[in-house]
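Record type: monomer structure entry
Structure origin: computed from sequence
Chain ID: A
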Amino acid sequence: MENELLFKILTPLDFHVRITHSYWKLIVTLKHPVMADRESDVKKLLADPDEIMRSKSDPDVYLFYRREDFRRWVCAVVKRLNSEGFLITAYPADKIKEGERIWNR
């Protein structure tokens, strides 16, 4: 079960993002515990973001943002390889990072 798919979501960029149970557990225990119990928020963010930026350091990495309130965002960082993407991490953010804006609502 640990390495089974937790979810696979189609993004507005027309590629799927996937994550396994074990990798989600790593995110919410080691990387960003504040994201525990926010799996549904991340799914919604990937399917229906407010903005998508391309990373300045890696053209295959995308940052998906969805506004939570007037000062806060949720960010999901995705790596795209070939036609599939996988979730690297997700976290609350107080601003959108610099980079190339490739999609917005």
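Annotation 1: The chain has one domain: 5-98.
Annotation 2: The mean pLDDT is 95.
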